[in-house]
Amino acid sequence: MEPIRIDGSFGEGGGQIIRSAVTLSAITGRPVEIENIRKNRKVPGLRPQHMLGVKILSKVFNARVEGLHVNSTSLRFEPSEGADMELEEDVGTAGSIPLILQVLIPAVSLSGRRLKISIRGGTDVPWSPTADYTKFVLGEAFARIGIEYSLEVRRRGYYPRGGGVVEAEILPCREARPVSFVKRETRAARMFCSYHGIPSAKVGAEAGDARAALEAGGFRMEEAVRSQDATDSGCSILIFSQDESSVIGSDIIFQKGMEGMGRDVAGRFLQSGPGVDASLSDMLVCPLSLVGGTSVFRVDRITKHLETNLFVASKITGCRYGIGKIDGGYEVRIAGMSDAGM
Question: Using N-to-C axis directions, what is the helix angle for 97-110 and 15-28, rounded to 10°?
Fold first, then answer.
């Protein structure tokens, strides 16, 4: 079968294209060839953090892979039939475990497979959703689609040394369903804050600032603040809410001091919506492109990651999509192609 060719310099032109292309390739069984990988970046080509997700996926789907090495500007992925597995993997750095799971979760579940996996690496690192976001926000949204998984953080892994441990179990999807996330009605939110090696009073002050900002915005809040073992010092905060027609989260990690961290994450949460947050919007595209029927979600802004995923999904699955301007943001509609491989 001739591979579907994807221009890796399109849109955000980074690792997102790789993750989305191999995910959809694994589900549909259609080989892909990605060219011009990270062409416009300071250091073009594949970096180590882009490679482990592809390596694990190639094990699960017995895939033939070409070009999977550091600095490679092209990658070919040809999957075979998947199999249930139990794996232990080590990123070897503070590379993002959540970004690896973004590849594995929809590919394994929508292919009707089961995977138990323990991964060592970064749980809460820059330029990535946190482990808590992956567990609570993405987990809730995917469950509405029919994708079920469990995730437990056994040890936190902060930048630069990582060393975190996440155990996950991905279950086969029984029935994939379209979703509608159009308006947040709830005024209840939850906050999770994990930290290590930072004074508890400082962490508590930031959590208090987040609480005050949410209450001023009209939200009731439950919170859990706890110290958790890690190699490096660090801190992450997640605020999220869910109701029948919305799933919205906002997370933040410790970088160069914490002053304003709580206010920042609360402010972004309050401004997100109306149906999903901007980060979640792009994560929904791959599974929804394969679900029979039309899904709709509303978001306050259209990101490069969202545009990139829509482009890749339409090329591989043939799904149709549209974006319309509405008061307070945008409405995205995806007409999935359930015969594209499921």
Answer: 20
